[in-house]
Specification:
Shape of chain B: globular
Order of helices and strands of chain A: HHHEHHEHEHHHEEHEHEH
Number of strands of chain A: 7
Low-confidence stretches of chain B: none
Oligomer: heterodimer
Helix content of chain A: 25-40%
Shape of chain A: globular
Largest sheet of chain B: none
Number of helices of chain B: 20
CATH topology of chain A: Rossmann fold
Mean pLDDT of chain B: 91
CATH superfamily of chain A: SGNH hydrolase
Largest sheet of chain A: 5 strands, parallel
Radius of gyration of chain B: 24 Å
Low-confidence stretches of chain A: none
Chain lengths: 373, 466
């Protein structure tokens, strides 16, 4: 006679075997779990990459950064929607100022550019997408540009500032390590000798199992869940109060780029610009030196702001201008076009009015590039 | 509690369940350790040690009050006393062991521990020697309630901390003061139950080990169920031997609990109504969605913990009472409360609702008025048990009024109902009733979960598009 008795030990052993098999299968096939998304299906896509600086505000801003999985980042973004026949896609790449800290997705540079309703010479609508991730690090920008090629871009608009060219191991570990294969390929292809990839290693088999990937998988699930309150609240960022920047500066001449009589940009990440041009390939690439806050108070003859002494920033402008000219990269230096009153909590973060000014200055160049194709 | 904590508790339960002789003392020792181990950090660091110690002092004091002289005999209680003091001392000695992952290392200095032990010895001596007129039990009863009111009232806690700060010559800090006394709500229920049942001679004689284990039984310590002492002790004295099938049932219950709590409830937490969403969301449809998510979250969270507790206890051969019975599938509010946090409802029925009802009946108060008073007062007190705040009081009022209206409506229909409904009609009526009851309960959660009545009103205005 059959009984319904359950043998607990057998159940546990079977569960263990199944779980082990699932782990092996996961590591072997490496499914693109990040592409499974409720965005652009159950809820609309986000207008910028999911990001929030502080863990305690994830639930307030209904978001979670998933920098370990660009599939998840892009799948949650409106850019992963199918491209329209009459659409000309411009991808905005950059750091927190392009992502637009302190502004809603309806106020930032991307939105201001979209409001201009630009059309290419052949009549296509120019649609701008904000795929910036708030980290001042050009190596990360190139990686994102590379990934974004899957989403049919027609042009790249890359906003940079001197600070983003610093070679910082912490950022390498934070953002590049999960993409070891792609990063090492970029380093190899474009001979990025300055990029510190010492700590980047190809993940072991165990690191690719479900157990090894649990943190990434958890974040992907959480990103989907945040999609519901995000869609209901229409907020993707915790809007903090901020103190206006001081016009006065310190008298320090110090900089990470050497001393006034011995400036040194050679060991920094300027070679990444070349990689960016390579990743863009046949598509137009416009690099913009983004506006900075220029103080006018005490010591403003020594420093522009907290970040930049005048000597280093002036040298940088000359350096990048020469470099982009030599590499035949379209370049626009808009460092001083936004008045100091239009900066918010940092020398790079602009107000909506500041974004409007910037959009009006970038748009003619965009149109030129679309028509020259 | 984390999965890690629960995993270790399960391991402890497995070992204790296998013990023959010494099982009762091992269970006591584990329970005493757990109240220290799970106690969350406090604004005054040393409170993390003194709060669990206070739990033990309070529990032992109550035992001394309710136990007969023969039950207090030293020769049968010294092993339990030794275990309790031994665990307290071991925990205190962690300042020397330095096991930071197990417990804090900033425990009180040994002379303070010895002093506290001395004070307790004097207190216990007085309790043993003092006569026990009825008012002593009433005083103990009131004392427990006062501690409860103190802990749950932010104003009192703030005043207390400010007083301590001023004694230390420190400036008041601009922070929200909280005393987190892990499990006190449930301890209070168990203590009051034993004090009251002792008064009416319904409590069996309990040894120190039995009494303390009953009050702080580690699987049920933080979230119930609230067992009855006489039933619990019967199981403790005669643990059920586990057959293979029982192991499977216990493990299944335990794992279902883990799944409910750490998968379903924790996932729902992200989309459950809270202060942030109540302030941000403007769409009624979304607000209903988040409200329903909250209703499900609180159920899965709470019933998940109950399943874990029942599963763990079962592994040790002890059957805890059920606390939930598909509450959201009940066709009226009375049935909901008979299947939601069942042991709490039974406790309030036994120690508050029934005595008040009897008292009002003696005074010949009209029946509808008795129902109104008893339902509202019971539910408001249950609400305030969660914290002395307007939101909890309003939640209680909501349910009290709901129970009263449902009672009167049922009476109205019963008198006029000539014949039973056709089965299809009955099924339809039941479905509608379940829907209405679930929504009524869900709307009540608005008061419960949102921190201010203003926010609750805002949520209501969005829910009903007002």
């Amino acid at each position: 006679m059959k009984t319904n008795q359950v043998n607990l030990l057998r159940v546990l052993i079977k569960a263990l075997i199944l779980y082990t098999l699932a782990n092996f299968a996961f590591a072997y096939f490496q499914p693109a779990v990040g592409k499974l998304s409720i965005y652009n299906w159950l809820v609309p896509g986000r207008e910028r990459m999911p990001y929030e600086r502080e863990v305690e505000y994830y639930a307030v801003s209904h978001t979670i950064p998933v920098y370990e999985d660009m599939n998840a980042m892009f799948s949650s973004h409106v850019v992963s929607q199918p491209k329209q026949a009459d659409e000309y896609r411009v991808m905005l790449v950059g750091d927190s100022s392009t992502w637009a800290f302190g502004l809603t997705p309806k106020e930032n540079l991307t939105a201001q550019l979209n409001l201009l309703n630009l059309k290419t010479c052949d009549g296509r609508r120019v649609v701008f997408y904000n795929i910036a991730f708030p980290l001042p690090y050009v190596a990360k920008d190139v990686l994102i540009m590379d990934k974004s090629r899957e989403y049919q871009p027609d042009m790249f608009l890359w906003l940079v500032t001197l600070d983003a060219f610093r070679n910082r191991t912490i950022y390498t570990d934070y953002f590049l390590s999960p993409y070891s294969e792609e990063v090492l390929s970029l380093v190899d292809t474009y001979q990025l000798t300055n990029l510190d990839v010492e700590n980047i290693h190809t993940p072991t088999f165990w690191e690719q199992t479900i157990i090894g990937q649990r943190s990434r998988l958890k974040k992907i699930v959480l990103l989907q869940l945040h999609g519901l309150p995000w869609n209901a609240a229409k907020l993707d960022y915790y809007y903090r109060t901020w103190t206006p920047l001081s016009q006065d500066q310190s008298d320090s001449l110090e900089s990470d780029f050497g001393s006034p009589d011995n400036v040194n940009f050679d060991s920094n990440l300027f070679d990444v610009l070349r990689a960016g041009r390579g990743v863009a390939g046949e598509l137009p690439l416009l690099i913009v030196n983004e506006p900075i806050f220029i103080g006018s108070g005490i010591n403003s003859e020594i420093r522009y702001n907290d970040f930049y002494p005048r000597w280093v920033y002036d040298e940088y402008r000359v350096y990048i201008e020469n470099l982009t000219r030599a590499e035949k990269i379209n370049y626009l230096d808009l460092w001083n076009v936004v008045p100091a009153s239009e900066f918010t909590d940092s020398p790079f973060h602009r107000s909506a009015a500041g974004e409007q000014i910037l959009a009006s200055l970038i748009s003619p160049q965009i149109l030129n590039l679309t028509c020259s194709q | 509690m984390t999965v890690f904590n629960i995993g270790l508790l399960a391991l402890a339960a497995l070992i204790i369940g296998r013990l023959g002789k010494g099982r009762e003392l091992a269970l006591l020792g584990a329970s005493v350790f757990v109240i220290y181990w799970l106690q969350s950090p406090q604004q005054f660091i040393s409170l993390a040690y003194w709060v669990p110690t206070a739990t033990l002092v309070l529990t032992v004091s109550c035992w001394l009050l309710i136990s007969a002289p023969e039950a207090r005999a030293w020769n049968q209680n010294w092993p339990a006393a030794l275990v309790i003091v031994g665990v307290m001392l071991l925990v205190d000695l962690n300042q020397f062991f330095g096991f930071e992952k197990i417990y804090m290392t900033t425990t009180p200095r040994l002379w303070m521990f010895a002093l506290a032990l001395g004070v307790c010895a004097v207190l216990f001596f007085v309790l043993v020697k003092m006569p026990r007129p009825l008012f002593v039990f009433s005083a103990a009863f009131v004392g427990i309630i006062l501690i409860f009111v103190f802990l749950k009232t932010p104003f009192f806690v703030k005043t207390f901390f400010e007083f301590i700060n001023s004694m230390r010559g420190q400036q008041p800090e601009n922070t929200r003061y909280i005393i987190s006394w892990l499990g006190f709500s449930y301890i209070a229920f168990r203590l009051i139950h034993t004090l009251r049942d002792h008064q009416i001679n319904r409590l069996p004689a309990l040894t120190l080990a039995e009494y303390v284990t009953y009050v702080i039984f580690f699987p049920a310590f933080t979230a119930g169920p609230i067992d009855r002492a006489e039933r619990f002790v019967q199981e403790l004295r005669n643990p059920v031997a586990l057959a293979e099938q029982d192991w499977a049932q216990a493990a299944t219950r335990f794992f279902i609990g883990l799944f409910k709590k750490f998968v379903i409830a924790d996932v729902l937490t992200l989309i459950a109504l809270n202060d942030v969403l109540a302030a941000q969301v403007k769409s009624p449809a979304w607000m209903w969605f988040f409200l329903y998510a909250y209703s499900l979250r609180i159920y899965f969270d709470f019933s998940g913990y109950t399943d874990i507790a029942i599963g763990l206890a079962r592994i040790m051969g002890i059957r805890l009472p059920e606390n939930f019975s598909a509450p959201y599938l009940k066709p009226n509010l009375t049935q909901f409360w008979n299947s939601w946090h069942i042991t709490l409802t039974q406790w309030f029925r036994a120690y508050f609702f029934n005595p008040i009802t009897r008292a009002l009946r003696i005074k010949e108060v009209p029946i509808p008025l008795i129902i109104l008073i008893t339902q509202i007062s019971t539910m408001v007190i249950i609400g305030l048990w969660h914290g002395v705040a307007w939101g909890f009081a309003l939640w209680g009022l909501w349910h009290g009024l709901g129970l009263f209206i449902q009672n009167r409506w049922s009476e109205f229909v019963r008198v006029r109902m000539k014949a039973p409904l056709h089965p299809t009609g009955q099924l339809l009526l039941n479905t509608i009733n379940i829907f209405l009851t679930f929504n009524f309960v869900s709307l009540g959660w608005v008061f419960f979960t949102l921190s201010t009545p203003a926010l609750a009103l805002q949520a209501f205005s969005i829910l009903f598009n007002l």
